[in-house]
Structure formats: structure tokens, C-alpha cells
Design brief:
alpha+beta; Glutaredoxin; Antioxidant, Horf6, Chain A, domain 2; five-stranded mixed β-sheet; three-stranded antiparallel β-sheet; 7 helices; 31% helix; Thioredoxin-like_sf; peroxiredoxin activity; Alkyl hydroperoxide reductase subunit AhpC (Peroxiredoxin); Peroxiredoxin_C
């Protein structure tokens, strides 16, 4: 199946490096990040998982749970985590899903036959507390992901859900945001007490609302 933005993330049961889980129960009321890896003991994945581990406090601040997936078994995952901890100077505490039969990879469309008939592509989903898919990013297996960008998008999604705004190009947390076209400038001045700057009738900025 092909998962699109706004779809409900499929639920599943699986073994992980930290024990058995039911995916929706694991997420609970949190935001979630599910990201796939072509295989254990691969160099790019080792750096990615290590960096993600170091971002634990950042994900915690955003009420977000992280879970990885690789088409290998639990024992390989647990031994690989030892390598990740050693080489990346970290302590991986999030689970890695075992998917030897590729059941979950196929459920989430993580295997792209034109790239590889057996290995997953480097896909990542952000899932909101309603279990809706809010972001899908897919990289080739050879290119490591930019997790600073993942945090940036997570900040944007959480801000947009809390306030009637959009975020402009290269936006970073704390910068000015955009007033959506559906809101008139007069209404915007009432909604956003920090002020509204009109560049064009359809392009209005306001300081980021307090979160």
C-alpha cells in the first residue's frame, strides 16, 4: 500500500530491541517518528541512529517518541546497538523494530523495487497524536538524513496545530511566521496581538506566537 499525508498510520505488532510492542499503544498520546534502515551494521545507519540518540532530550521536549526499523532480527539489533553506542559515543534508548519478513516494511511502503528488491529505502514519517501521518521523507540508501531538519519540521507542525499560522522558507523556531490567506488582515490583527506586517495582501508576517 502507499501511505500519503493525512492517512492514519497503520497499526502493527512487532518484536523490537526493547521487547514486543503494539505500535499505536507505544505511541500513546505522543507524536512519533518512525524511520527505516536498509540493514543492520551499515555505516550510514550507524551514524544516523547515533545522532538520533543524542537528540533524545530534544525529542522529549517536543513530546515525541522515536522508533527505528530494520530488516534484521532482534539479536542483530541488540549487538548493533553496542557498536552504535561505542562508535557514536551515545546510549541508544529507543527501540529498533525487527522486520525479517519485511511485513512492516511492505505495510509502510518502505521497499522500493527499483532501488532494491529486499532492502528498505531510508524513509521517515512524522505521526501526530491522532495517529495521522504528517510528514514523509524518503532518501536513497546512500544518503544520511538531516535530523536537524526533522526537528525543524516537528516544531513547525506543532506550532501550526496550536496556532493559525504557516511557516516560511527556512523557518527556524522563534522566527516570524506567516498569516494564512484564509484570514483577513483585519482579523489577523485581532488574532495576533504581536502585530501583523503586510507585504502583499496574501503575504503577511507576524512574530511567532507563544507556545
Amino acid at each position: 500500500m502507499s501511505i500519503k499525508l493525512g492517512d492514519t498510520a497503520p497499526d502493527f505488532q512487532a518484536e523490537t530491541s526493547l521487547g514486543d510492542i503494539k505500535f499505536h499503544e507505544f505511541l500513546g498520546d505522543s507524536w512519533g517518528i518512525l524511520f527505516s534502515h536498509p540493514a543492520d551494521y551499515t555505516p550510514v545507519c550507524t551514524t544516523e541512529l547515533g545522532y538520533t540518540s543524542k537528540l533524545k532530550s530534544e525529542f522529549d521536549k517536543r513530546g515525541t517518541k522515536v522508533i527505528a526499523l530494520s530488516v534484521d532480527g532482534v539479536e542483530d539489533h541488540q549487538n548493533w546497538i553496542k557498536d552504535i553506542n561505542e562508535t557514536q559515543n551515545t546510549d541508544v534508548q529507543f527501540p529498533i523494530i525487527a522486520d525479517k519478513d519485511r511485513r512492516i516494511s511492505e505495510l509502510y511502503d518502505f521497499i522500493h523495487p527499483n532501488a532494491s528488491a529486499t532492502a528498505t529505502v531510508r524513509s521517515l514519517l512524522i505521526i501526530d497524536p491522532d495517529k495521522k501521518v504528517r510528514l514523509i521523507i524518503t532518501y536513497p540508501a546512500s544518503t544520511g538524513r538531516n535530523f536537524n531538519e526533522i526537528l525543524r519540521v516537528l516544531d513547525s507542525l506543532q506550532l501550526v496545530d496550536s496556532h493559525k499560522v504557516a511557516t516560511p522558507v527556512n523557518w527556524e523556531n522563534g522566527e516570524d511566521v506567516i498569516v494564512p490567506p484564509a484570514i483577513s488582515t483585519d482579523d489577523a490583527r485581532k488574532i495576533f496581538p504581536k502585530g501583523v506586517t503586510e507585504i502583499k495582501p496574501y503575504l503577511r508576517y507576524t512574530p511567532q506566537p507563544n507556545t
